[in-house]
Design goal:
Blueprint: H1 3-11, H2 19-34, E1 39-43, H3 46-58, H4 70-80, H5 82-90, E2 97-99, H6 104-113, H7 119-127, E3 133-137, H8 144-155, E4 159-164, H9 171-174, E5 177-180, H10 186-209
Parallel strand pairs: 1-2, 1-3, 3-4, 4-5
Length: about 210
């Protein structure tokens, strides 16, 4: 078992039933990034904040600094000299991820002009490519805008990971992997989602940037 996952289960033994699905979600994302794909992430309320949080852990150094490879540093310095060295010193390796909750103008326009439950689905249609992964976060598993996004993702050839509560709701039948934490109350579910996605982000960082 990966050290990060072992630590998660030691700290949160109640998440032991989720172990296999956490490993499967990590594998889907690892394969996505290994083939040049990206992650799209969505949720509502506290889960919207989680979407932003996950992007922050993937797009910059989390547990490591992720320095640029030597050949990339050389490219910057050849182009820009000292300024290139400045850029290379301050850029970090990134795992491409887009939070679908962040595009206020697009979301409000789409909700007003078309349909509120399609605000994430339209972005999946526009951004998503086969091989990408959509991560949908909903404590009930039934949030209409997240369900619509997953439906579009599957039709477009994306893999889908759900983060939900005990039952999994509608997402359980739609997603390739649904991590169902064994709680029903929203605060309890959201409190377990955070250490789960932290663990997945740590494992991905180790996969692509070392410990």
């Amino acid at each position: 078992m990966r050290k990060a996952l072992q630590r998660l289960l030691e700290r949160y033994p109640d998440l032991a039933p989720c172990r296999e699905d956490i490993e499967k979600a990590h594998e889907l994302l690892r394969n996505c990034y290994a083939s040049g794909g990206k992650a799209l992430i969505c949720g509502n309320g506290g889960s919207a904040a989680d979407s932003e949080h996950i992007v922050g852990e993937l797009m910059k150094g989390f547990m490591s600094k992720r320095p640029l490879p030597a050949e990339e540093r050389t490219r910057f310095t050849e182009l820009y000299g000292e300024e290139g060295a400045y850029l290379a010193d301050r850029l970090q390796g990134a795992l491409p991820a887009i939070s679908l909750v962040s595009h206020t103008a697009l979301m409000t326009a789409y909700a007003n002009d078309v349909a509120p439950d399609m605000v994430f689905a339209q972005q999946v249609y526009g951004y998503g490519r086969p091989g990408d992964v959509l991560v949908g976060i909903t404590t009930s598993g039934n949030s209409a805008n997240v369900v619509r996004a997953v439906q579009v993702a599957k039709a477009r050839g994306l893999a889908a990971v759900g983060l939900t509560g005990r039952t999994g709701g509608k997402l359980a039948a739609l997603c390739d992997v649904t991590i169902r934490v064994p709680y029903d109350a929203t605060p309890d579910v959201q409190e377990r989602h955070l250490p789960i996605y932290h663990t997945i982000c740590i494992m991905l960082e180790e996969d692509f940037f070392g410990k």
